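User: Please fill in residues for this 266-position structure.
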């Protein structure tokens, strides 16, 4: 028994035992990370061909590397690293015309798209091949066939404080703003939720499930396709606009009555 105990003590002090323990710890951490990453993984299996990746790399070097670096590592105070942002981030930024950026400023502006769908897919495939990240969403979640009532509730809880309850957008600080969503496609809305562009937080699948994202898209699609049941929504900007209109309307009515009474007395 004493010999066995002495042997075990010797094994615990052995450098090989330390290496084995470190290896086991790394294995456990790596397995845990893989499991967590799978829980919040993109909504489709990304399929990229080598030719598509190489084509995307050529486009990236010609159009993006001057700011983001030849290896997408980013440049301090100029452009962020794109390693790990995923295909969805590239597709969102380029397909809305925000990228390539025209000029520095508080926020990237929507512009006419400068690339074809094939070129955008190739650049997205190249950036996605650099490291895992959110993939372009599956069409199953972009059909606007969810529950608009639940989607409206989720939108008001998570999004309305910036985008307005009617999705009309709103002002933020330092010249930034939350854009209106009335002209946005289902794909760009979904991609914005999973990538968190600019000032927007990321809503991965652990925060809002793909089905709930589909509910939000269904709600916004309903708003896009149906006019306000209360008549003119005055831009959907809320009580400030409505109160201002009421104020000027009542003031105009008072002035008109005053003029009429003055003319009648004369």
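Assistant: Residues filled in for all 266 positions:
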């Amino acid at each position: 028994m004493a010999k066995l105990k002495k042997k075990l003590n010797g094994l615990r002090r052995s450098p090989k035992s330390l290496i084995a323990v470190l290896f086991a710890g790394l294995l456990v951490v790596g397995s845990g990370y893989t499991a967590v990453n799978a829980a919040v993984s993109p909504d489709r299996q990304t399929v990229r061909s080598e030719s598509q990746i190489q084509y995307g790399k050529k486009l990236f070097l010609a159009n993006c590397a001057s700011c983001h670096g030849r290896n997408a590592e980013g440049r301090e105070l100029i452009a962020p690293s794109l390693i790990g942002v995923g295909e969805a981030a590239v597709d969102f930024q380029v397909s809305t015309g925000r990228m390539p950026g025209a000029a520095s400023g508080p926020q990237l502006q929507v512009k006419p798209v400068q690339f074809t769908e094939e070129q955008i897919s190739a650049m997205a495939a190249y950036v996605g091949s650099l490291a895992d990240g959110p993939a372009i969403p599956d069409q199953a979640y972009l059909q606007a066939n969810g529950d608009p009532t639940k989607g409206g509730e989720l939108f008001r809880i998570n999004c309305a404080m910036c985008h307005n309850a009617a999705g009309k957008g709103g002002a933020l600080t330092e010249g930034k703003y939350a854009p209106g969503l009335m002209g946005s496609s289902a794909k760009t809305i979904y991609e914005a939720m999973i990538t968190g562009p600019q000032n927007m937080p990321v809503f991965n699948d652990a925060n809002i499930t793909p089905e709930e994202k589909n509910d939000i898209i269904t709600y916004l699609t309903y708003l896009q396709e149906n006019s306000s049941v209360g008549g003119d929504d005055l831009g959907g900007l809320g009580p400030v606009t409505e109160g201002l209109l009421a104020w000027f309307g009542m003031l105009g009515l008072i002035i008109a009555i005053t003029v009429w009474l003055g003319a009648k007395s004369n």
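For context: The mean pLDDT is 82.
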